[in-house]
Amino acid sequence: MIVSVHQPQYLPWLGYFDKIYKSDLFVFLDNVQYKKREFQNRNKIRTKDGSMWLTVPVITKGKYTQKISEVEIENESDWRAQHLKSLEFNYSGTEHFDEYIDFFRKTYSREWAKLIELNVHIINYLLETLEIKTPVKFESSLDIVTESTQRIIDICKRLGADTYLSGAGGKDYMDESLFEKEKIKLMYQNFEHPVYKQRFSPFEPYMSVIDLLFNCGKESILLCTKNTGN
After folding, report:
1. What are phi and psi of 70, to 5 degrees?
2. Structural domain includes residue 230
3. Run of H or E residues at 43
4. Domain tally for the chain?
């Protein structure tokens, strides 16, 4: 069984879903420390001027060691209206805008207390829309207390996985010898970003997967998982 893990991100990019698609089980890494200026509360969309960040404001002051599952959204600003306006302005001219915008209108009409609840709500919708049927679990349900590579090892052992699929960046920090010791096969994702028709040119990669969805619709699953190798 192939297992992969990742923090629940906001409006994740294509590679995030490619990794889930290539796994037999995906684990939301929700029980680790939240890090600022990463992708848990922000991502990029395409505009006529290139790209722009959509950032969910979160409460971090005095909460240096809070876990991802504990992060609260700062709802004093009207960030939801701003994000929806950005989607409508930049994607209203795409071929599949009308098919998917209602979900985001409903999502941004709600006030969300915790970041993880918002992120997982959107990710689950995108998984269903992209027809990715990989089951998901939350790391917090596994009672894992170790850190770093050993944490990943223990997740795999707890779930009975014989293979771990890591993002390519894992080569920079994981202790590969621990996988050998535990006889767990370590694979690295080898995702080749597809080029697809965007509303604006030239093509700009590494946007949120919703850029692909609004532009390509049901073809998205084929493009999102174009590279079938790991």
Report:
1. -100, -10
2. no
3. strand 42-47
4. 1
Rounded to whole angstroms, the Cα distance separating 190 from 169 reads 10
CB atoms within 10 A of CB 176: 12
164 neighbors 187 (Cβ within 8 angstroms): yes
H helix or E strand, kind and range, residue 2: strand 2-6
Three-class DSSP category at 52: strand
Question: d(Cα 79, Cα 59) in Å, to the nearest integer?
Answer: 14
Helix orientation angle between 14-21 and 209-216, rounded to the nearest 10 degrees: 90
The string of pLDDT tens digits covering residues 63-84 is: 888 999 999 999 999 999 999 9
Helices (H) and strands (E) in the chain, counts: 8, 7
Asked if residues 182 and 159 have their Cβ atoms less than 8 Å apart, the reply is: no
pTM over 0.90: yes
SS3 of the chain: helix, strand, coil, percent, to 5: 40, 15, 40
The pairing of beta strand 42-47 with beta strand 50-55: antiparallel
In Å, how far from its chain's centre is CA 12? Answer: 4
| Bridge pairing between strands 136-138 and 25-28 | parallel
Tell me whether residue 229 is in a domain.
no
The dihedral built from the CA positions of residue 26, 191, 32 and 75, taken in this order, carries a sign that is: negative
Q: Contact, 24 vs 1, CB < 8 A? A: yes
Domain that holds residue 120: 2-224
The C-alpha atoms of residue 94 and residue 43 are separated, in whole angstroms, by 19
What confidence tens digit (pLDDT) does each residue in 134-156 have?
Answer: 999 999 999 999 999 999 999 99
Query: 67 pairs with which residues across the strands?
Result: 33
